[in-house]
């Protein structure tokens, strides 16, 4: 598996097929992905290690290991690690298009458009 580095940590694609993709996300302490949405895919996040703070639409959730949430296509969301250890998430993406360019960013700590 090829690890892809991002300002917030890294991800690896574990499996993919027609209409789905499975990633392992590693989010550094104090880091967060951008506030974003996807026009072509939904995501299901399962916490493996650490504590996740999730923004999903107007909701804010705190997820511990073995807890999960679903982010429907088109819903604004963010995944954040407010803890002191790395956060590990399994992300299952589903939809007609799963490319990395299907990210519409609304806010980003790292200055990405």
Write a compact overview of the structure shown.
It contains no helices and 11 strands.
What percent of the residues sit in helical stretches (DSSP H or I)? under 10%
Q: Work out the helix count.
A: 0
Major pleated sheet: 6 strands, antiparallel
Topology, number of strands: 11
Radius of gyration: 13 Å
The fraction of residues in strands falls at over 45%
Strand order of the largest sheet: 1-2-3-10-5-8
Structural class by secondary-structure content = mainly beta
Low-confidence parts: none
Specify the overall morphology: globular
Terminal Cα separation, in Å?
27 Å
Order of helices and strands: EEEEEEEEEEE
What average pLDDT do the residues reach? 97
Word description of this protein:
The strands form 3 sheets. Strands 1-2-3-10-5-8 form a 6-stranded antiparallel beta sheet, with no helix packed on it. A 3-stranded antiparallel beta sheet has the order 7-6-9, with no helix packed on it. Strands 4-11 form a two-stranded antiparallel sheet. With 113 residues, the chain is mainly beta. The protein has strands at residues 3-6, 9-17, 20-27, 35-37, 41-49, 52-56, 59-63, 68-71, 77-80, 87-95, 104-107.
